[in-house]
UniProtKB/TrEMBL annotation:
It comes from the Eukaryota. This is CCHC-type domain-containing protein. One of its GO terms (molecular function) is zinc ion binding. Keywords: Metal-binding, mRNA processing, Zinc, Zinc-finger. The keyword ATP-binding does not apply. GO terms for biological process: mRNA processing. Residues 76-89 form the CCHC-type domain. The lineage of its organism: Eukaryota, Fungi, Dikarya, Basidiomycota, Agaricomycotina. It comes from Macrolepiota fuliginosa MF-IS2. InterPro entries: Znf_CCHC, Znf_CCHC_sf.
Length: 107
């Protein structure tokens, strides 16, 4: 196992593995020709890392963290209302701050 014992779910059978390689011929060959690596006898598909965009937990906007946010009030990522954090939300409705649409959260 790669994941620490105390961080595994009771019925967990697999864990996430991230391997970082320097760019070059081997990386391109792995991504374009082989597409799999063998880890403990299992063939694991290889993919280029897909970065998740940075999103502020305070204002819900992209490209900065809460520690760098210029907003004074928290904006809920679930209902879109100002004045409370997402984890404190009791609303039954959802509203996305970024696309201004109802029916889904901001994340």
């Amino acid at each position: 196992w790669i994941k620490a014992v105390d961080r595994r779910s009771k019925n967990q059978r697999t864990a996430h593995l991230l391997i970082t390689l320097a760019e070059g011929e081997e990386v391109e060959r792995l991504l374009t020709r082989r597409r799999h690596i063998s880890v403990w006898g299992r063939m694991i598909p290889v993919e280029r890392d897909q970065k998740i965009p940075v999103r502020c937990a305070k204002c819900q906007c992209f490209s900065h963290y809460a520690s760098d946010c210029l907003e004074t009030d928290d904006t809920c990522g679930k209902c879109g209302e100002k004045g409370h954090k997402t984890k404190e939300c009791n609303s039954m409705t959802t509203h996305c701050i970024n696309c201004k649409e109802d029916g889904h959260k901001s994340f």
